[in-house]
Amino acid sequence: MPANLVRNLIIAVIASIAFYGLWIVIAGPGEVWREVQSLGLAGWGAILGLSLLNYVLRFARWQTYLNSLGYAVPVWPNFRFYLAGFAFTATPGKIGEAVRSLYLKRFNVNYTDSIAAFFVERLVDVVSMVLLSLLAAYMFDEWRWLIAVVSVLLILLLPLVRSRWLAVVIERVAAGSKKMQAMAGHVLQLLRSSRVLLSSANLYGGLIIGVLAWAAEGLALYIVVQMLGFDISVPLAVGIYAVSILVGALSFVPGGLGGTEVVMGGLLILVGVGEPVAVSAVLICRIATLWFAVAIGLVAALELELGNGGRYAMIDGKQGNGA
């Protein structure tokens, strides 16, 4: 397990505890604690179940990506590797999740291929979140036509990422700088490696799964707010969740810490949710999504590192070679 990722995870956990503690103090510890308790076991079960649904859907897509690249990694080991990546979800841009490439190497999955799959997964997830974030604006009648147009254009233009035109644009932009040329070379190599996964079937199939997976976690926010006594619509809750996650990702702060919470809480207050309830809803949602994933990832990673995960020695994971 890379030492720098472990260090970043520890820093993210300490920073999160400090940030959440300060936020609870400002909102009122007593009120926040009462709201958290009112969720009950049924509420926690529902939102954690939706997070698990998110993970399973995304893993199914990941397994399909590896199959498309010509690998036949067994489902159970691959699922464990995938979950282990969640231990490093709280890293800038979730880049730490690429640690699963180290585990997949045990099945002779080339780093180039696993990184390509990771790149396409991130790309499709970002587009999925953008589409879901538009749901918040869709609640306003005067914006609906624009939202529909933007959504259709985004979906139709998505295949451009595999086009020769994009490669030419990248080469021209980087032409004046050796440093930019080096970066462009890496990007173009990544796009070439991802070509199979950027085919229409994988691209749009992955997008559908991404929308469903992230909508499940947005639905968790809706359930939390409803159970805490405030009524908002499902599209609005999903849209608020998606916008918040995008802002956190763009901040490139580990786990989106601070940006995600402030935006999510601010938007909930803006639509009429009381401050203590908004703070409680955000904390519950982040525990049930981000930190639940990190906890599962840590268990999986520690089991692989300390348990019998090492028995997955170098096995041929190519299709038809006895994987």
Describe the structure.
It is a single chain. The protein is an all-alpha fold and 323 residues long. It has one domain (3-311). The chain contains 13 helices and no strands. Helix 1 runs antiparallel to helix 13 (275-306), helix 3 (40-68) packs antiparallel against helix 10 and helix 6 crosses helix 11.
Tell me the overall shape.
globular
- Give the N-terminus to C-terminus distance in angstroms: 24 Å
Class inferred from helices and paired strands:
mainly alpha
- What count of helical segments does DSSP give? 13
The number of E-state strands comes to 0
The count of domains is: 1
Low-confidence stretches: none
Content of β-strand = under 5%
Summarize the amount of helix as a percent range. over 70%
In summary, what is this structure?
This protein has 323 residues and is an all-alpha fold. It contains 13 helices and no strands.
Give descriptors for this structure.
single chain, mainly alpha, globular, 13 helices, 323 residues
Give the secondary structure arrangement, pairings included.
Elements: H1 3-27, H2 29-38, H3 40-68, H4 75-85, H5 100-104, H6 111-138, H7 144-157, H8 164-173, H9 178-193, H10 200-227, H11 234-251, H12 259-270, H13 275-306
Helix pairs in contact: 1-13, 2-13, 3-4, 3-6, 3-10, 3-13, 4-13, 6-7, 6-10, 6-11, 8-9, 10-11, 10-13, 11-12, 12-13
